[in-house]
Amino acid sequence: MLGIFVAGILLLAMPELRNNAGLSFNLFQSAGSKPPPLSFAEAIGKAAPAVVNIYSTSYDTRPLYYRRQPIERTSLGSGVIMTFNGHILTCYHVIKDAERINVMLQDGRILEASLVGQDPHTDLAVLKVTDENLPVIPQSEQYNTRVGDLVLAIGNPYNLGQTITQGIISATGRGGLSNYVSNANYADFIQMDAVLNEGNSGGALVDSNGTLVGINNANFKTLDRNRRIKDVAGIFFAVPYALAKRVMDDIIAHGRVIRGYLGISGAEIISDAGILVTGVDPLGPAARYGIRTGDILVKIDGKPIESTFKTLDQVAETAPGSELTFELLREDEDKKRTTVSVTVKVSELTSS
């Protein structure tokens, strides 16, 4: 009887128990207390000091009353300090044709940077500065970029000073963007909606923990009805960290990026897995080892082929002189499965 009486008192005092809502401990909190606001200040505090402003200067000469007078041009961009030795990743178009490059850190230091190397095909460049106590951005070799991840873009838009914008990853592996994204021509861009403006190029794209996700590149562009180029709101791109890191390591080690070359072009087959070979370079390794136009590539090194972009990306990342084994179907042989081993050679896209 006592238990029933106590239960009745509790139900009257706490009506939420009638709906199986459970006991809320908010009763023991002060009426004015609130949960802490959601903030990414800690993540920005880890990453932002390693994002620098880049000012590149070039000189142009134009006729002026039968004389040529040099004109100084300054380009604005951002960069990311990647190593304690002072290596900085930025976009190639930020420092293209520059004769002098200055880097400003967030603590006010201004350093002159030298160009280690560039890779126009991914629109990346590596700079080098020399100083002590350089901040380095947090990085993770195991980072897995997923659609829907929250990201923060850090840069210096319009030279207003370091600015943070926020969005989510909209897509990964975007390719065929050479007409829309700076002067890059690569098939592995991150698409996101964190706003980028002039000066953001080369800055950091980080996750909610402040870990580097990619190097900010540019926004999507298209043509209006008058065939004039215009920016498209809400569609922006970044080079993913894994690709940017590989390019940087190659440039530091060799002064250039060395890519493998197969010598084919292809199209995905909608109804089935594999790549239809639509063109073969007659002087390339694919032709030399027997791959022909019309062949359907279904496996590479024993693994099913997922897409044209991923396959050509795998070839590009293969060291020249290495061997790749392809399993293919041949139309004129009733789609008989054939295995072809190809020795990859140096790509003409190798940057200098």
Structure in words:
It comes from Bowmanella denitrificans. InterPro entries: PDZ, PDZ_sf, Peptidase_S1_PA, Peptidase_S1_PA_chymotrypsin, Peptidase_S1C. A hairpin with a 5-residue loop joins β10 (204-206) and β11 (212-223). The protein has three domains: 45-128, Thrombin, subunit H, CATH 2.40.10; 150-252, Thrombin, subunit H (Beta Barrel), CATH 2.40.10.10; 260-346, Roll (Pdz3 Domain), CATH 2.30.42.10. With 352 residues, the protein is mostly beta strands. It is built from six helices and 20 strands. The strands form four sheets. A six-stranded antiparallel β-barrel has the order 1-2-3-6-5-4. A six-stranded antiparallel β-barrel has the order 7-8-9-12-11-10. Strands 14, 15, 16, 17, 18 and 19 form a six-stranded antiparallel β-sheet that branches.
List strands and helices in order, with pairings:
Layout: H1 2-13, H2 41-47, E1 51-64, E2 67-81, E3 87-91, H3 92-95, E4 100-104, E5 110-119, E6 124-128, E7 150-155, E8 163-174, E9 189-192, E10 204-206, E11 212-223, E12 229-240, H4 241-254, E13 260-261, E14 264-268, E15 275-280, H5 285-288, E16 296-300, E17 303-304, H6 308-316, E18 323-330, E19 336-343, E20 345-346
Antiparallel strand pairs: 1-2, 1-4, 2-3, 3-6, 4-5, 5-6, 7-8, 7-10, 8-9, 9-12, 10-11, 11-12, 13-20, 14-15, 15-16, 16-17, 16-18, 18-19
Tell me the series of helices and strands, N- to C-terminal: HHEEEHEEEEEEEEEHEEEHEEHEEE
Secondary structure: number of strands? 20
Q: Give the quaternary arrangement of the chains.
A: single chain
Radius of gyration: 27 Å
Walk across the major sheet and give the strand order: 1-2-3-6-5-4
Would you identify the CATH architecture of the largest domain?
Answer: Beta Barrel
Determine and state the CATH class of the largest domain: Mainly Beta
DSSP helix fraction: 10-25%
Structural class computed from helices and strand pairing: mainly beta
Shape: flat
Fraction of residues in β-strands: 35-45%
InterPro entries: PDZ, PDZ_sf, Peptidase_S1_PA, Peptidase_S1_PA_chymotrypsin, Peptidase_S1C
Protein name: Outer membrane-stress sensor serine endopeptidase DegS
Organism: Bowmanella denitrificans
Family: Belongs to the peptidase S1C family.
